[in-house]
Amino acid sequence: MMEGCFWRILLVAGALSASGAAPPPHKPLIYEKAVALGMELYNEKAGEDSQYRLLEAVPQPDWDPTSESTQELNFTIKETVCLVQEERAKDECDFKDDGLVKECSGYYFFDETPPVAVLTCETVGGNEEETEEEKEEEKQPKRVKRFQNFFRELEKKFREFFRVYRITIGATIRF
Fold first, then answer.
1. What angle do CA 60, 64, 68 make, to 5 degrees?
2. Which segment of the chain is annotated as a signal peptide (predicted)?
3. Which of 121, 138, 148, 160 is nearest to 35 (CA)?
4. What are 84-120's pLDDT values in tens digits?
5. Is pLDDT at 49 greater than 60 in this prediction?
6. What domains does the chain contain, in order, with CATH numbers?
7. What is the mean pLDDT of the chain?
8. Residue 48, Cβ neighbours under 10 Å: how many?
């Protein structure tokens, strides 16, 4: 009796594997939802203190919600007054007046199982402010103390580093 059951299970398993049934395709993913997932991914994985909110989504006319191939997305986010650990809804968070703006581009790889998203965000702008500050400093009379210029240059380099800093994130996605 045990032997007959074993052969029946083996026969059913063989028939199912031989049918060549492809894995079910992913759920359709509209562009707006993909951008929202990308922004969520950034807020979760970037290690920033502040949350970011969508400033602008660049339309992708070639986006196909049911495609199994790689899809590209582009959007801009801006820093908000909310902290990441607060876990508030993005709509409740106002933009910071002097918040960082980041341009993000990424790809969804739907041919992977589970689908994979890779996102790169770069800080934009900010150079105009530094230039205006430097011009104001030049107009002021110079009262130079020892090391004052050294610390200004050091601070300037730190600012440049953190403004030009690029973050790339990759993760599997579930939607």
1. 130
2. 1-21
3. 121
4. 888 777 778 899 999 999 999 988 887 777 778 888 8
5. yes
6. 31-123 (3.10.450.10)
7. 73
8. 16
